[in-house]
Amino acid sequence: MLERLQYVKQRFDEVSDLIIQPDVIADQKRYVQLNQEYKNLKALVEKRDEYVRLTDNLNEANEILADGSDAEMVEMAKMQLDEAKERLPQLEEEIKFMLIPKDPEDAKNVMVEIRAGTGGDEASLFAGDLYRMYTKFCESRGWRTSTVDFNEGTSGGFKEVIFEVTGEDVYGTLKFEAGVHRVQRVPKTETQGRVHTSAATVMVLPEAEEFDVQIDMNDVRIDFFCSSGPGGQSVNTTKSAVRMTHIPTGLVAQCQDEKSQHKNKDKALSVLRSRLYEMELAKKQEEDAKKRNSQVSSGDRSAKIRTYNFPQGRVTDHRIGMDVFDMDGVLNGAIQKFIDELQLVANTEKLKESEVF
Questions:
Q1: What pTM did the predictor assign?
Q2: Helices H, strands E: what count in the chain?
Q3: Contact, 314 vs 331, CB < 8 A?
Q4: Cα–Cα distance between 163 and 115 in angstroms, integer?
Q5: Using one digit for the tens of pLDDT, what is the confidence trace for 87-144?
Q6: Which of 49, 351, 55, 315 is nearest to 185 (CA)?
Q7: Which positions ≥6 away from 182 have C-beta within 8 Å?
Q8: Which parts of the chain are beta strand (E)?
Q9: Where on the phi/psi map is residue 142: left (φ > 0), alpha (ψ -120 to 50), or beta?
Q10: In terms of DSSP bridges, do strands 196-206 and 179-185 run parallel, antiparallel, or are they unpaired?
């Protein structure tokens, strides 16, 4: 392992020199990539330093114990040996997972799209519950959320809501939430007390930078219209909302959240760019999934991933067969336990494939 970690240290030193070079700083795409690599390598180098310290302590302790001439030193050596033996196996596992090549998209910000599926008004209410769940989760992670577009349901909630999430390693965390979420509960309008099943679809798109996707604006039709919903006097009187249609693919993106037409145009373009980027990424994920037979990142948007069963107070993730009996907690953003398990399964699959060790 030390030999492998030495290569990491050499690359870290190399990247540290590169990111301060003027020609690298001038190349935005390369500079962003190298900065992300620097951050990942820095964490690994810190683990390497701990590994070197512990192995040195282990060797030193064994030498003192073999000598055995100083009783006080022998006692200290035993403590040092116990600490190293306890920590080293755990540290090796941590390093193995950190050495798995990261997906370059994982560090990106995201666009999250939640759409009500089957179930009418109840599906819209559930989409609203999911929106609240994710905004609460993002808040707990210190990430910033910003609404891009929404279409409210007739009895509350959303037929569709799109929001942007910015922060650290957002896509790498939220990508596991993409798919069909199902809810089983008694709707407020149900007089007989029968449990209904409704669904909502969640899509998580990595936010594409300008250098990731080049859009020819001649291929884009732009329409302006009046915003709907709350927002003061400018609503329904000023054409500040923007809809963009990418003619070659038929993809449509719109934004009506801002009062400024210019800001809405920028946000709509960002959504369009992310959707085009995600189209290519979905193809790649599908190919990877066929190779890996992965259960957690198949790229299949129609896959039912989680059920929220209100009568039993149970949330089930079907990909890993995990049940959590804390409905209130989950709907208030406590989904990290699911994400941790899904990341562990995905990393274990990658570890089996990799030739790191």
A1: 0.72
A2: 9, 11
A3: no
A4: 12
A5: 999 999 889 888 887 787 888 999 999 999 988 899 999 999 999 999 999 999 999 9
A6: 315
A7: 197, 198, 199, 304, 306, 307, 308
A8: 110-116, 144-152, 158-166, 179-185, 196-206, 220-225, 241-246, 251-255, 304-309, 314-317, 322-324
A9: left
A10: antiparallel
